[in-house]
Amino acid sequence: MKLPLLLTVFTSLILPTAFSMSPPSPHQQTVKTSDGIRLAYNQTGPPNGQNLLFITGWRQAQVEWRKQAEYFSSIGYRVTTFDLRGHGDSDEPDFGYRISRFAADLNDVLTQLDLKRVTVVGHSMGCSIMWAWFDQYPTSRTSRLSKFVFVDQSASMVADPHWTPAEAAQISAIFSPGAVYDVAFDMAAQLGPLVRSMFTSAVSEADYQWVLSQNKKMSDAHAAALLRDHAFRDWRDVLPRIKGVPTLVLAGAVSIFPPAGIEWIAGQIPGAKKYTFTAAERGSHFMFWENPERFNAVVLEFLRQQH
């Protein structure tokens, strides 16, 4: 999707929303971060199964991985999902909405749940969190990480004004600097169109409304703060350092991120494999939701490969 078309999706005023620190459900499992925030998590599958950890994107909730959690746990994997701070059923404080803090939260989840030989699957902003964690926690990554799966996130969302259009297109930098602030400022009324743009036209109304309801669990004000931080991160120097970690990079032919920039990431990570979901395969930004059978099969094939 071209930038002007993408930007038509966002056009109203952010309305600050009260944050929630209310207790989670008594049945909800939580991890407490180093700065005192409770993150809701769920684990399914046999305790001795190979560890799989799924990380959501911006404004998404862990239940949106349910088609993966159900499948992989049913075939013997130990699946862990969790809600990022401010998302889903986790605490929503009024601080910490930056990728570096989210990487620290991820490290808290890994260490407190003592996940080892874990394959980490991240979607969209979840990839940025993984890159930040890899960069910031070398000891933890050495002792805990098995494989990476990066799902549809560009290495830099914002194009430097001094780049040529070709340079921006190479890495799927879909925003200008000013556009990010425009999006953050005009978010509230446009959340619905934004979420819809992440799917193909074949998505059912029921599915769209359900995903939208998960997005609305996070306040627009906190989502705007996180978007501003997330969008301006540039991870290109991290990618070549992901050496010795088997990696799969997944793109979508009809995603909001043009696939060329996602495929470019695979070329920067030594030995990385890549797969692009076609339009016929419903290769949207949410291909894992729209075509879970194909998505799960591609990931499973990668998991079973010897490296």
Automatic annotation (TrEMBL):
Keyword Glycosyltransferase in record: no
Keyword field: Hydrolase, Signal
Keyword flag Signal: yes
Signal peptide span: 1-20
All residue ranges annotated as the AB hydrolase-1 domain in the record: 52-292
GO molecular function: hydrolase activity
Record PANTHER family: HYDROLASE ALPHA/BETA FOLD FAMILY, PEROXISOMAL MEMBRANE PROTEIN LPX1
Protein name: Alpha/Beta hydrolase protein
Species per Swiss-Prot/TrEMBL record: Podospora didyma
